[in-house]
Amino acid sequence: MAKSHVSTTVNGDPVEFLCDAPETMLDVLRNTLGLTGTKEGCGTGDCGACSIIVDGRVVCGCLMLAVEATGKQVTTIEGIGAPDRLHPVQQAFLEDAALQCGFCTPGFIVAAKALLDRNPDPSETEIRYWLAGNLCRCTGYDKIVRAVQHAAAEMKGQPA
Amino acid sequence: MARVVLSGDLGRRFAGGEVEIRVSGSNVLRLIKALEERYPGIADVLESDAMAVAIDGIVYQDAMLEDVGEESEVYFLPAIRGGR
Amino acid sequence: MTYEPKNLRVVGTRPIRHDGADKVTGRANYASDFTLPGMLWGRVLRSPHAHTRVISINTDKARALPGVKAVITGADLTLPPPGITQAGESAINTQHLAKNLLARDKVFYDGHPVAAVAAISEAIAQQALGLIEVVYEVLPHVIDVDEAMRDDAPLLHDDLFTEGVEPKPEKPSNIAKRIFVGKGDIAKGFAEADIVIERSFTTKAVHQGYIEPQGVVANYAEDGQAMVWCSSQGQFLIRDLCITMLGMEASSLKVIPAEIGGGFGGKTTVYLEPLALMLSKAAGRPVKLTMTRGEVLRATGPHSGSSMTAKIGAMKDGTITTAEVVIKFQAGAFPGSPVGAAVMFCSAPYDIPNLSITGYDVVVNIPKIHAYRAPGAPNGAFAFETVLDELARELKMDPIDFRAKNSAVEGSKSPYGPTHGPIGGIECLSSAKNHPHYKANLGPNQGRGVASGFWINIGGQSAATVVVNRDGTISLVEGCPDIGGTRASLAMMCAEVLGIVAEKVRPSIVDTTAIAFNDVTGGSRVTFATGIAVVQATEDAVRQMRERAAKMWDIEVDQVGWRDGAAQELNGNRSLTISQIAQKAAKTGGQIMGHASINAHGAGPSLTTHLCDVEVDRETGKITILRYTTFQDAGKAVHPSYVEGQMQGGAAQGIGWALNEEYIHDAQGRLENAGFLDYRMPVASDLPMIDAVIIEVPNPNHPFGVRGVGEAPIVPPLAAIANAIYDATGVRMRDLPFSPPKVLAALEAAGKAKANG
Ligand code: FES
Ligand code: FES
């Protein structure tokens, strides 16, 4: 079976890769591009560990075919924050102890950043429903929700 | 002489019910030796990994050389990590 | 080591965890993030049947597929000699483990591995599985624990005779073991009681639900030296199980701990590691094996479903006189459920003079049960704490007062024998009673439930090395995988002893060749037991630094004290900081390194009380958790945020267990809900904030008073929610989970009974 050639943008960089038709974006990120920050918890769209941002929307990397990335802007956990400064969501997760094992954390941070990009002032309920596609088995979500609230407050306090 | 309590399954099996006995032995190893004289076969059970010992309320999962005082209360109980 | 009250500067604060930046940026490497040059991909073929004989396995076609480099079956795994390997809260029977890794003549559950393949790509490995021809002879199966105990039940093992009954049974059965804990005289106790309530309960098998599936990379070299990268709760356990399975020497296998994406007890055994080593040995190349979520749910150890009866008697004044409890646990395919803990601890928050508690360990056709957070205790507490709630209502007593009246305290005898040291049961109850949550008003269809829980906590073997660097920073070397912030708590204890800030201590968790043996991260033991090792290793380093300072000043070492990260001359005002001493270390005897390798004893039990408010939707049967507060004795919270995190996370798991989680099998015994869509764990929108109130009754056997905290919080939620549902509706739920259809049916049945009554 011939491989498909895909040109896309990942974390701001132009990227090209070859993939088989059934390969998911998650497989390509992890196995072809070496971006292992995006995790696989289920492979069926039910845990959010593989959350990435594609053209501004949060999607499950495990449900997206790699060929669909053609011409799109893809952001992964590796593309969030800068070398000299963590993104406010990342910083809030650290300060508020919003992670235990940390396996779900990249997915939550990606999803939370996308939320705050579109809604800088979410209510607790909005945060909980927005993050309802991301499973965390360790924290009971309390500190995650607080970290997102904290990050929202920080981001409002700063000129964007 | 320490107070040793054989309760639960252990008491049933070796003493026909719960018993509290006075046994001399200044550490767990010596205590088990003394118990074996009274209840042949009990040493194998007490020394197995499936058993823990509590001396004065402190549970030891792998006791052998721990001191046992003259007035100590000693229980043998299933090791919680050895519930199997 | 014993507790001494002292002024603490680091312990009890909330620094940022040392591995935090790696984990919020995606840098942290979990098991399946590793790759090696030349690496092959493995896949496992699993039985689609719950109980079968394996007549034959033909792998010829799979081997012939281009790109396939190795195929293994049960015939390739020599049965190891009988033995037991200790694994934290459980002990692993080596022959059962071998039969679980790869089925031999019999398959015991849907998902049981029968063969494994390594190939140059995952797709080819998957294709090869389809070419393996297995002839099965399907047998009748049994999953329900009560059914499995019947005389006419399908028999899993014809060589299994019940242990713990006299006389020894002549016929094999599915009952592996009967255990008993008791004291006093229950007949007398029931005679003294004014009210006796007896109820029966059932729970379904549930899964630990860690988000990271099992994964491993193994590399077996021609000279017999091997390496394994995997995520587990203990690299030493993985090493010991692998070498036992494969007949290797301990020094030949290096196990490198990856970050672990949750375990909760489920990652204290091996499923893939020995297979990956065998495949790597056969192929002569590194092999990666990972599980899909479906494989995790179908083939890794869930926690026992159970069937229980609790009969408790109390006097009019609220004194509990006696309890008689029978607890039956699913063990899965092989003996060894955590029923012992349910038996020992279900009544442990209380001081009850007459007790008879019997447990049965029963094999059934689901995967071998494995530890899950406070293994066994939540089931027992569900039954016990629900009956207590009924008693309190009958007695017209406040449920907290009723519990407090019977609470175990320092000096009372535990059900499992020993006398309790200081424990925080009463403190949790009174803190709950005085909390605003307990006084808040409830609306229609809303109710409040209370329940308590107990977990014994364990100590065990731990080692630590404290290396003093030239610049005064510290490399803290330890061997317990960090699942919930233990790097931080251990580094903080090291910093506290040295008198420096936690950020100057860098913890690392090293492989099996770089430190002495450590038991698993489990049983809530790391902050307690490894904490003691760290404190001792740090004290060792401090002693050496005082000696070096004495040499540099040319005085006796007893003239040198230690304060604020520096050696202090006791009869003078000279001082030398860590870095000043370390810079001269080459001249005074070489680099300074403190070390400790210990077996820690005296882990203090942790008690906890939960308050839960629910609202019941009478139209749909849906239960909404409105408010949840946990109170728990942590002894001393080293890093309070992570203690709260344990309390909140444990409560959330208990809530999931209560409301939705269960293993559902079809008529053929196949798992029907082997995915997160149908195995429904709580998501953020299912839960409210979970308030965590930390209570500190110091453990006398730890230098800072620490008790384990990880397990206890999962114990009370099942009963707390059941009691809250009753408070809201007047309906008693005794069969888990309380999923909407079941709640609706119970409400309708109660409505009918009322109408007819
Ligand atoms: S791995 Fe994609 S949602 Fe779970
Ligand atoms: S921190 Fe472990 S799954 Fe979220």
Task: Note down, in words, how this protein is organized.
The complex is a heterotrimer of chains A (160), B (84) and C (757). Chain A has 160 residues and is α+β, with helices and mostly antiparallel strands. Chain A has 2 domains: 4-79, Roll (Ubiquitin-like (UB roll)); 88-155, DNA polymerase, domain 1, CATH 1.10.150. Chain A has helices at residues 25-32, 88-95, 105-118, 124-130, 142-157; strands at 4-10, 13-19, 51-54, 57-60, 73-75. A 5-stranded mixed β-sheet of chain A has the order 2-1-5-3-4, sandwiched between helices. The longest helix of chain A has 16 residues, at 142-157. Chain A is globular and about 50 Å long. A 5-stranded mixed β-sheet of chain B has the order 2-1-5-3-4. Chain C folds into 3 domains: 31-139 and 212-261 and 267-299, Alpha-Beta Complex (Aldehyde Oxidoreductase, domain 3); 302-457 and 604-755, Aldehyde oxidase/xanthine dehydrogenase, molybdopterin binding domain (Aldehyde Oxidoreductase, domain 4), CATH 3.30.365.10; 459-600, Aldehyde oxidase/xanthine dehydrogenase, molybdopterin binding domain (Aldehyde Oxidoreductase, domain 4, 2-Layer Sandwich). Chain C is 28% helix and 25% strand. Chain C has a 7-stranded mixed β-sheet with strand order 3-7-1-14-11-12-13, sandwiched between helices. In chain C, helix 11 packs parallel to helix 20 (717-729). Chains in contact: A-C, B-C. Chains A and C meet through helix 2, helix 3, helix 4 and helix 5 of A and helix 1 and helix 19 of C. One FE2/S2 (inorganic) cluster binds at residues 99-104, 136-139 of chain A.
